[in-house]
Design a protein that fits this description.
Elements lengths: L3 E2 L2 E4 L13 E4 H4 L4 H12 L8 E6 L5 H14 L4 E9 L2 H11 L4 E4 L11 E7 L8 H11 L4 E4 L11 E7 L2 E8 L3 H10 L2 H9 L9 E4 L6 H11 L7 E2 L20 H9 L4 E5 L6 E5 L4 E2 L1 H10 L5 H6 L4 E4 L5 H9 L3 E4 L3 H9 L5 E4 L3 E4 L7 H15 L3 H12 L1 E12 L1 H15 L8 E4 L2 E10 L2 E2 L6 E2 L4 E5 L4 E7 L6 E11 L9 H11 L12 E2 L3
Parallel strand pairs: 1-9, 4-5, 4-6, 5-10, 11-12, 11-13, 16-17, 16-18
Antiparallel strand pairs: 2-8, 3-7, 6-7, 9-10, 13-14, 14-15, 18-19, 20-27, 20-28, 21-22, 22-25, 23-24, 25-26, 26-27
Helix pairs in contact: 2-3, 2-5, 7-14, 10-12
Length: 561
């Protein structure tokens, strides 16, 4: 590769529909592989940086899925031509989403480009995605994504330095003169910066002692599943090299372009192999992470399932187990609106401020930047803290191991004790995927019309002999307490007087069609109800989710039993 290159301008055409959602632009791989398609979107991201672009430093990496390396190459060449001064790129094009946030914040860059479709399947016939993270390390807020989208609608050309070819497999620093300006590409170890941060947050010696055992108690056996996603290198370094976990307890830890045929979504449906292994094996604890490493699932012995809503609440109640929070203090808790309200009980009892925000990690980030928030989570298997501005699967796993080490109790006992103290929020979610968009919108409009009628408040709805009295029906909106920005139409809510809830929401994380999610949440504090089967407790509300509204006749998946 020559050390001096000249950029060129390539004429292009507008591609409609390049509107980033809550987690960037997600489409089928074949869409991104169209001529100029990826180049257009990358150019739009860079132009949206405005005055920040010349001389900027950006982070680039992704979850290792199909088309990732090719996309990294295009980003390098386009960034070089657009006046970017330096790129920090993960080796092999790989960086977990939490690692991208870590690196942006550590090196104070102007942001980062993350190549991921998160928990969506990978491979040539599956999905790809590109999202931009801002200088705080978090997903771009609405005003930035709207700016990117506006640029895509009128883009006539993009700039590219076609002669640049960097070996992504080799850790190295390359300096190239582009149109007379110095351009640097640093290919870095994907794990180092993230590992350093985790060791600063947690007491690794305490976790290692738990895992290795002692004279007082046997080793705490874990099974960690990377689902063939980006977390593989991180799992090996942290759990094997640092914490001494046997390699047989680490599975699916090699990033694969198609995730080995797995659907890299860490839930009871798609991580069934982990569930079965723990149910039938000697393990005390299990964890799985999604394709880009920001989601997690936690299991106890015999595959005792910790719902994400309960996971958030237990961590909130036990933050004193983690050295980081002893240093920083606990500023506040937050959850996304659809997430079960278990953490609300902890906030009330501990007199710590609670925030309810729309779905999307950017809303948490705003609160964190203003110093209002320490711990947050979403029911979609996302948990995190203010150490970065993304949800963080491995962080959540280490947080749980810290709590277990501190309390000296197994997962199930920790949950039972928690419910006895705070009561239990039974929670489930139904997904209706790849729906016809017009029909989905019409159904949501019908539900909204029904629940916003004045006479709906006070209505008694009965199923399975149990009656619920409607307290509120609305389309949730949110005013950010930091910048007063407003997010409207964030999900239809039916709130009942006993604290139970039914939520309907159109999701923006799919790559095609519409996804309707229905959330059901029921609070119980009767000691006799705490250990009941969740589906038994939720059955009346589950039946009511279809009444008196249009029946959801599509095939659904219950993700959170």
């Amino acid at each position: 590769m020559s050390s001096t290159v000249t950029s060129k301008i390539v004429e292009t055409r507008v591609y409609e529909g390049q509107k980033p959602g809550t987690s960037g632009l997600r489409k089928a791989v074949r869409v991104f592989m169209q001529e100029h398609y990826t180049e257009n979107f990358v150019q739009a991201i860079l132009e949206a940086l405005g005055d920040q672009l010349p001389g900027s430093t950006l982070v680039v990496g992704g979850d290792g899925r199909y088309y990732g390396k090719e996309a990294v190459g295009k980003i390098i060449r386009i960034a070089a031509a657009n006046g970017v001064k330096k790129l920090i790129v993960g080796q092999n094009g790989i960086l977990s989403t939490p690692a991208v946030s870590t690196i942006i914040r550590k090196y104070k860059t102007q942001g980062g480009i993350v190549l991921t479709a998160s928990h969506n399947p990978g491979g040539p016939d599956a999905d790809f995605g590109i999202k931009f993270n801002c200088e705080n390390g978090g997903p771009a807020p609405d005003h930035v994504t709207n700016k990117i989208y506006e640029i895509t609608k009128s883009l006539k050309s993009y700039k590219i330095a076609s002669d640049i070819n960097i070996d992504l497999d080799k850790i190295q620093s390359s300096i190239i003169q582009v149109d007379g300006n110095q351009f640097t590409v640093d290919i870095i170890d994907s794990v180092n910066d993230y590992l350093e941060l985790m060791k600063d947050i947690f007491d690794f010696s305490s976790i290692k002692k738990l895992l290795q055992g002692s004279n007082e108690r046997p080793p705490f056996k874990v099974l960690i599943n990377g689902m063939n996603g980006v977390t593989g290198p991180y799992i090996k370094r942290i759990f094997s090299d640092e914490l001494g976990v046997d390699n047989s307890s680490i599975v699916n830890a090699t990033p694969l372009e198609d995730f080995g045929g797995l659907h890299p979504d860490p839930n009871l449906t798609y991580a069934k192999d982990l569930v079965n292994a723990i149910k039938n094996g000697p393990y005390d604890f299990g964890a799985a992470f999604d394709g880009d490493g920001d989601r997690n699932m936690i299991l106890g012995k015999k595959a005792f399932f910790v719902t994400p809503s309960d996971s958030l609440a237990v961590l909130a109640a036990n933050l004193n187990s983690i050295p980081y929070f002893k240093k920083t203090g606990v500023k506040g808790f937050a959850r996304s609106m659809p997430t079960g309200a278990a953490v609300d009980r902890v906030a009330t009892k501990t007199n710590i401020k609670l925030f309810e925000v729309p779905t999307g990690w950017k809303y948490f980030g705003n609160l964190m930047d203003a110093g209002h928030l320490s711990l947050c989570g979403e029911e979609s298997f996302g948990t995190g803290s203010d150490h970065i501005r993304e949800k963080d699967g491995i962080w959540a796993c280490l947080a749980w191991l810290s709590v277990i080490a501190n309390l000296g109790k197994p997962v199930e006992e920790i949950l039972l004790n928690h419910w006895q103290t705070y009561g239990r929020n039974f929670f489930t979610r139904y997904d209706y995927e790849n729906c016809e968009s017009d029909g989905a919108n019409k159904m949501m409009q019908q539900i909204e019309t029904a629940i916003q009628k004045p006479e709906f408040v006070g209505t008694k709805l009965t199923a399975e002999g149990k009656t619920y009295v409607v307290k509120l029906g609305d389309n949730y909106s949110y005013v950010d307490p930091v910048d007063a920005s407003k997010a409207s139409k964030q999900g239809l809510r039916i709130l009942f007087e006993d604290g139970s809830r039914i939520i309907y929401r159109l999701s923006g994380t799919g790559s095609s069609g519409a996804t309707i999610r229905v959330y059901v949440d029921s609070y119980e504090n009767d000691p006799a109800s705490l250990t009941k089967d969740a589906q038994e407790v939720l059955k009346p509300l589950v039946l009511l989710r279809k009444l008196p509204f249009p029946v959801l006749s599509l095939a659904s998946r219950d993700d959170s039993k």
